[in-house]
TrEMBL record:
UniProt keywords, alphabetically: DNA-binding, Transcription, Transcription regulation
Family: Belongs to the LysR transcriptional regulatory family.
Annotated GO MF terms: DNA-binding transcription factor activity; sequence-specific DNA binding
Gene3D superfamilies: Periplasmic binding protein-like II, Winged helix-like DNA-binding domain superfamily/Winged helix DNA-binding domain
Name of this chain's protein: LysR family transcriptional regulator, glycine cleavage system transcriptional activator
Pfam families in alphabetical order: HTH_1, LysR_substrate
Species name: Albimonas pacifica
Keyword check for Transcription: yes
Length: 307
């Protein structure tokens, strides 16, 4: 199959289309925000590339040649189709809900208690919330935003810290019952609680150089079940500290280990694909940042579990 002939540059075709429609290099230049000389030069280059005249002088203006009129119809139809397709994209984007994936505990502990305020402020924005801890390809799944825990700087996406929070290992006082927990290896004496579909605590321990633990068993639970099980003394769990601070202050939980974070990079990040954002996505992102920045805004997250 033969390859199609290469097309002239889009700049040259745009210049010709504007000049053919207005029959004036000056009008076309004003429309394109360039000089009339730049438009004329682009058209002359296009004529040289095609080997035929497209426009000629006619009094104080321009006139199309026969070849110019033929090309003008084709270019105009092509641009009209492109414009119609782009407008359809815009209409589709305007109607499409803002899709957000975030961990279940962040959804329950931070988002849901505040979401009514966003709905009242932006009734025109529809949201599609995916409370999941799974790894998501934002482009493939057409997600607008993700809220994920870590230090940020992930490849291929843009991230901005929303809620700072180191990770912490906690347990109920009844589970510890006076036993000393000074080394990471000491955690082997306790059952563990981990969210279904993840190996977060196992990875955390591996980062500390500890493997082969959990000999006394544990449980994989849905994210929303981890906090009640943790308070009930059913195991130890890894959490974002911001989720368990109230329980630590009240004595319902005790801290066993806490990650060091000298650079203040650990926490929950807003993650997005590079490129422009739809108005609804911008509105939701601004609202999230305002909520997190309010006095006590990030400190009133009262649910623990997975980071």
């Amino acid at each position: 199959m033969s390859r199609p002939a290469p097309l002239p540059s889009l700049t040259a075709l745009r210049a010709f289309e504007a000049a053919a429609r207005t029959l004036s290099f000056s009008e076309a230049g004003r429309e394109m925000n360039v000089s009339h000389a730049a438009v004329a030069q682009s058209v002359r280059k296009l004529e040289a590339e095609l080997g035929r005249p497209l426009l000629r002088r006619a009094g104080r203006g321009l006139a199309l040649t026969a070849d110019g009129a033929l090309l003008a119809r084709g270019v105009t139809e092509g641009f009209d189709r492109i414009r119609a397709t782009l407008e359809a994209f815009e209409e589709e984007d305007a109607a499409r809900p803002v899709r957000v994936t975030l961990t279940p505990n962040f959804a329950v502990g931070f988002l849901i208690p505040r979401l009514g305020g966003f709905r009242r402020a932006h009734p025109e924005v529809q949201l599609d919330i995916d409370p999941s801890a799974r790894v998501v390809d934002l482009a493939e799944e057409r997600m607008d935003l993700a809220i994920r825990y870590g230090a940020g700087g992930w490849p291929g996406v843009e991230s901005r810290l929303l809620v700072p929070s180191p990770r912490i290992i906690t347990a109920a006082p009844s589970l510890i019952a006076g036993r000393e927990v000074r080394r990471y290896e000491d955690l082997a004496a306790f059952p563990w609680l981990q969210e279904q579909g993840t190996e977060e605590m196992t990875r955390w321990l591996a980062e500390k150089g500890v493997t082969g633990l959990h000999g006394v068993g544990g449980a994989y639970l849905p994210g929303y079940m981890i906090h009640p099980a943790l308070l009930d003394g059913q195991g130890v769990a890894l959490s974002g500290k911001v989720f368990v601070q109230a329980d630590l202050d009240a004595g319902r939980l005790v801290k066993l280990f806490e990650d060091e974070d000298p650079d203040g990079r650990l926490g929950y990040h807003i993650v997005r694909r590079p490129g422009p954002e739809r108005p609804g996505v911008q509105a939701f992102t601004r609202w999230l940042r305002r909520e997190a920045a309010r006095p006590g805004g990030a400190g009133t997250m009262a649910l623990s579990g997975r980071t």
